[in-house]
Structure formats: structure tokens, C-alpha cells
Design a protein that fits this description.
The complex is a heterodimer of chains A (400) and B (106).
Chain A (H helix, E strand, L loop, with lengths): L1 E8 L5 E2 L3 E6 L5 H8 L7 E5 L7 H11 L4 E8 L7 H10 L4 E5 H4 L2 H18 L5 E5 L4 E6 L10 H14 L3 E4 L9 H5 L5 H21 L6 H5 L5 H9 L7 E5 L9 E5 L16 H10 L4 E6 L12 E5 L2 H6 L6 E2 L10 H17 L4 H4 L24
Parallel strand pairs in A: 3-4, 3-5, 5-6, 8-9, 8-12, 9-11, 10-11, 12-13, 13-14
Antiparallel strand pairs in A: 1-2, 1-7
Chain B lengths: L5 E2 L7 E4 L8 E4 L2 E4 L9 E3 L8 E4 L2 E6 L8 E2 L4 E2 L4 H11 L7
Classes of the chains: A alpha/beta (400), B mainly beta (106).
Chain lengths: 400, 106
Amino acid sequence: MVIAEQAYLRADGRKGIRNHLVVAYLVECAHHVAREIVYPYREVGVQLIGFGGCYPNAYAAKMMKQLCTHPNVGGVLLLSLGCESFKRTELQAAVAASGRPVETLVIQQSGGTRKTIEQGRSLVEQILKGMEYVPRAPLEMREFVVGTICGGSDATSGITANPGVGRAFDRLVREGASGIFEETSELIGCEAIMAERAVTPELGTILGNAVAKAAAYHTVLGHGSFATGNAEGGLTTQEEKSMGAYAKSGASRISGLLKPGDIPPAGGLYLLDVVSDGEVRFGFPNINDNAEIAELIACGSHVILFTTGRGSVVGSAISPVIKVCANPETYRRMSDDMDVDAGKILEGRGTLDSVGSEIFDLSLAVAKGDKSKSEALLHQEFVLTYKSFEPIGPSCLPRV
Amino acid sequence: MVDPRLLRLDPLDNVLVTIQTLEAGDSVVIDGRKFTVTSRLTLGHKLAARDIRNGEKIFKYHMPIGSATRDISAGEHIHLHNMKSDYIDTVEMQARHSLDGHHGHR
């Protein structure tokens, strides 16, 4: 089934639903210059991403490579200060090998802030011209990747928006697409029922271990994934919140476990493990919702389904974010930011099935080019921090 | 017969979820019996669907979400004061910690 006739065909065979130019700073010291380069072009699909740290990190290198070669990205400008540890020539070579136009500016070599901004803007013009003639090809359902996340949850999230996304995920997976859910630290209490959905017993054990790792990580940090606002919204326990979050995954069998930057090998439902392996390092696994959104996108997500009860407004660089609002009172207050009014279920204006269809249809419309609310409002949040992962083993992606 | 302002997510559940804000003094009807709401409850809070004994599991969406920490009467608000997590103690401690207002990330 073709879902978008005019997708952007990349040299690796993957297809994008957008054709963004990303300007990527490789250390915080290059952030301001990168942002200034982007600013005049921010409404024409030029977006800012980057990594703030000065010390080398394999996770950050992989994330940046996967993001700069994401199918929604058509060209790249790298911004280096000059003395940071990020291996800019390796990243430039990887992007060039993907067939995309790519340039690097080193601020210390370009003559400082003002001159680099000038050179950067002329390179943006040049790269944009090079991106105009990307071949087009139809995007098939089996090539479509959708990620899901919740943020600003309240007690309505688990009743309306999350099971609504679950219905949409069931249909996407049934028709051949890939669905990715994550937030392993918000699945604490759901391990047993989740493991039963794995396509192999070994994978079931791996899924359980990923949640146990998240629980242990949070224990060391002395901090749960349970915020004051959750309790004000009527949620009492971690497992109550977890069951609500878990509902986003729907009822399909679980085909595999991914780590940030791993691309689903075929259609199916995947759990993304977002908590670092090994000893607890680098602080909180995910400092905010955008850290997880960036990881879902690094796994190839074309669009993100974001459920919220209390009302998050964020979007993302690279892939559009669709807001599914769980709470009808929040929807009325913040409707400019919300794409789907899932809370209508609570007021007898819709059912889980009708909301699920609405989310499914909107995902396809956004894939065809319609802008989501956060996208039209130019929300392009992005954050990338330090993490560390072991590569996934063969049992994580069983062939069945 | 359940009050239209309350939602029973699953027939097995011993809690009902408020789907509108209820004010203190409002009456709600659960299985033909009338109860008075004692404090303001915003959308998404839980009321006991029947009498629940101390230690009994609390079920919501057909799933156990914790246990009662004292006897709870039908129609009573169920929250941190009368139920607790059955999961690892640390999670509960962390939850309390964040409820003190120090932390909480989403």
C-alpha cells in the first residue's frame, strides 16, 4: 500500500516525507553560530540539531550520524569550533557517502563568529539548491516508521490518548509499518505481560531485562519516573502510570528490541531501550521528552505520535510530532497545539476505535505532507546528551 | 447503574474514574447508592466502586495498580492516603520524594 506518492528517495533506499537541511553544531561552543545561520531559513525547512559535549562519545557519534542521514534529511552543514573532540571528518564522510550534499565550517579557521555566519548562510543557499533535485518515489506502508512517546501525563492519558495510539499502532503494524515504543522506565510493573507478547521467549527475557535495567538505574539515582503533576492528575502509583503508558504499544506481537540509532529491519512492533548499559553514568537516562524523541527519530521514525494529558507543546527537528491530547479540558485550553482531541471519548463524542482511526489517518496525512500543529508552529526542539550502549545481540531481532 | 461522570474502565475494576471535575458536596450514584463527594476531585481521580478491605488489590484497566493501606468505603476517594504501590519499595519512596516537590521530570 502506497501512503505518499512523492516521498524523497535517498541513496540507501530509504524514503523521507520531508526534505530538511540540518545545520549541526558539534560542540556547544558552535551552537550560537549555527543558530544564527539557521534563523533566516527556519521557515523553509532548515533546522538546527547538535551535540553540546566536548568529550568524545560513541553514542553521540552514532546518533549524529543516524540523524544527519535520516530519510527526512536532504543536506547537512556541520559547525565545528575547531578544538572539540567530535570526529567531524568521520561524520562528514558518512554523510557524503549517503549521497547527501554536506559541508563543514570550522569557526577557528573561518575567522570567527561574523565571518562563519556569512559563509554558513551562503553554504545553506548552495546546499538547498543541491537538494532540489532529489528523486521522488512512492513510500510504501512497509517502509513507514512511526514512533510514540507520552509527556505531561495525567490520569486521562492512560484512558484515552494512549489506548487510542495503541489502536492506531495495531493497524499500522497489521498493514506492514514499523511502530516503535520506548520509555522503559515507564514500563516498570508491566514486564510480565509485555514479555508474553514477544515473538520468541528469548526476546521476552530481553524485554524484561531492559525494564529491570531501567528500574535499577532509577533506584541508584533515587528518582522515579513519577512527577508531582502525575499525582495531582489522579495517578497514585508507578504501576498505574506504567499501565497507562504501556497502552500506547497496542496489542501486536513484539518483534524486537532496538537501541538508539538501530533501524527496524522489517515492519513490526519494536521496543526501544533508552537506558544506558553498564554502570550508572551520565545522570538521568532521559533528561526530557525531546531526548527520547531524538532517539526515536535516530531509529528512522518518520513521524512521532506524542500523547499528553496536561499539555506538552514540543515538536522536534527532522520528523513531525503529532499531538494526541488525552484530556478534553486541556484540549479546549490548548487546541492550537493539539492535533487530535482524544479526550472526546470521556464526553461521549467518540470511541477508542474512532480516535484510533483518526490518529492513523492523520499519520498518513502528515506523511503525505500535511503539517502537524507543532510543525506549523516551528517547534523544532532538539537535545542530545551523553549515554553508553552495548550493541544489540541477534536475539534482540529474531527471525521468525 | 454508574453515574455518567464516572467511568468504569473494566468490569473487574474496584475503582471508578472521574471524567469531570466533582466539587465537594456533589452527590454521585454508584450501583444505585448515593454518595457525597468530600473534597474537590479533578478529572482522572479514582473513587472506590465498592467497599475495599485493607490489603486488597486495587484494579484499574483490569490490572492491579497497588493495594489498599486501610479499609476503604464505596464512594471514597482513592489516592496516596489509602493505597500504595505493590512494586519495589524504592519506586514508592521515589514517588513520595517527588511529591514533596523536589523532583519530577514529566
